[in-house]
Design goal:
By secondary structure, this protein is mainly alpha-helical. The chain contains two helices and no strands. The longest helix has 34 residues, at 10-43.
């Protein structure tokens, strides 16, 4: 007997998305600062690349956070989530 594919739980998906918020901004800043440090090492330009790429990473992280936050309204509600407490029309 083959079982049907199980739909992922919407609450678990939402929790995973929200938990990822705490890592997006620091990771983007770290990647930008790391690239800036490499540029500084290669060009010998002091902390100019570190600061510039760090700020670019900060901007990219904020952009990604806003993009993820705006996608929460695009998801469809779980089935049966918008029914009245009495079970809907004729149910009660």
């Amino acid at each position: 007997m083959a079982q049907g594919r199980r739909r992922p739980d919407q609450n678990a998906r939402l929790l995973a998305d929200v938990l990822s918020f705490g890592w997006v901004l620091p990771a983007a800043i770290a990647v930008g600062a790391g690239l800036g440090w490499l540029v500084d090492r290669l060009l010998g330009s002091g902390p100019v690349g570190l600061v510039a790429f760090g700020l670019l990473g900060f901007g990219a992280g904020l952009r990604q956070l806003l993009r993820e936050a705006s996608s929460f309204g695009d998801e469809e509600p779980p089935p049966g989530g918008d029914q009245p407490p009495d079970g809907g029309p004729g149910g009660g």
